[in-house]
Amino acid sequence: MTASKLDQLRKMTTVVADTGDIEAVRRLKPVDCTTNPTLILKAVETPAYAGLVDEAIAWGRKAGGSDKAVHAVCDRLAVTFGAELTKIVPGRVSTEVDADLSFDTKATIDKARSIIAAYQERGIEKDRVLIKIASTWEGIQAAKVLQGEGIDCNLTLLFSLPQAVACADAGAFLISPFVGRILDWHVKAGGGPYTAETDPGVVSVGTIYAYYKTHGIETVVMGASFRNTGEIEALAGCDRLTIGPGLLDELAGATGDLPRKLSADKPGEAPAKLTLDEKAFRFAMNEDAMGTEKLAEGIRGFVKDLRGLRKLVAAKLA
C-alpha cells in the first residue's frame, strides 16, 4: 500500500502544525508546533479550552483589571497553550512576541526574556521554545541579541530575500517565509495563472533555500502560510514546513508519489552573497513593494487579533 503524501513528506521534511488547537495537534502528531495571535484568539474562543482560559483569568484577577493585568493574562494564555503543546509534540513550540512591539528592539528582547522565564517557571526549558518575532529590522536585531543569550528565535512575516539575508546575519535559528501571502499579493496584482512550481511564494522560498544552502548558512528554512497542497508538495524537502490542520488532513488522505523538490546537496542556482547594513536593508525593502506591503499588513493583522484577545480578556476580568 502506498504511503500517504503526509507520511512521504515526513521522511524528507520536518512537519510542523500551524495551529493553537491542542486536539488537532494531538491527532496530527507533528514534530513542532507554531502559533500566533490569530490562532490563540481562535483557541481562546473555543469552549473546549475554557478551563485554561478560566485559570489565566483567575490568576489575572489578583492583579486587578488594569491594562498591565490584561497584557499579563494574554502572555499567560500564550504560555499556557504553549505549555500544553509541549506535552504533545516532541520538538519545539513557537510563542510570539506581541506584534505591536515589532518596531521596538528593546521591548521585544524584554518580552522574549519574560516568555522564556514563564516557561521555565513551569519546568519547560528554552530548548523547547522558539521566540517568534516579526522580520522587521528592529525584530531582527532583537533576535541577534536573544540568540547570543541562547534563546532561539523564529523570524516570521518574512516575504523577501533581504529579510532572509538579515536574519541569517543575525544568527536566527529559524525563519518562516510566507508562501500563500506572497501568492495572494501577485494574484491581486493581476499575475498568473500559476502552477505549483511557478507560484511566486514557492519560488521565493526556493530561492532563499538555495541561498542558505549554497552559502553554508545554518538558519532553518520553514515554509509557512500555505493556500493549497500543491504549494506544499512543490517544497517537499525544505528543512521544515508549518501547515494548518486542514491541509495536513488533505495530505494524510492523499496517495501517489511525492518526489523531493528541494535538496541541500543540489540546492539549485543561488543569488550571490549579500551584506546588508540597516540602510541597505531598508532600501531593499523599499524597492520590494510586495515584501513591504505584506509585512505591514501582517503586523496590522496580528495586532488586530492581539487587541481582540486583550478586549476579550478585559471583559472577563471585569
List keywords for this structure.
8 strands, TIM Barrel, 318 residues, alpha/beta
The number of E-state strands comes to: 8
Mean pLDDT: 95
CATH topology annotation: TIM Barrel
Broad shape:
globular
Explain this structure to me?
It is a single chain. The protein has one domain: TIM Barrel (Alpha-Beta Barrel), CATH 3.20.20. The longest helix has 29 residues, at 289-317. With 318 residues, the protein is α/β, with parallel strands linked by helices. It is built from 14 helices and eight strands. Helices cover 53% and strands 11% of the residues. Strand 3, helix 6 and strand 4 form a beta-alpha-beta unit. The protein has an eight-stranded parallel beta barrel with strand order 1-2-3-4-5-6-7-8, surrounded by seven helices. Helix 8 packs parallel to helix 10.
Q: Helices and strands in order, then pairings?
A:
Blueprint: H1 5-10, E1 14-18, H2 22-28, E2 32-34, H3 37-44, H4 50-61, H5 67-86, E3 93-96, H6 105-121, E4 129-134, H7 137-148, E5 153-158, H8 161-169, E6 174-177, H9 180-188, H10 200-214, E7 220-223, H11 229-234, E8 240-243, H12 245-253, H13 278-287, H14 289-317
Parallel strand pairs: 1-2, 1-8, 2-3, 3-4, 4-5, 5-6, 6-7, 7-8
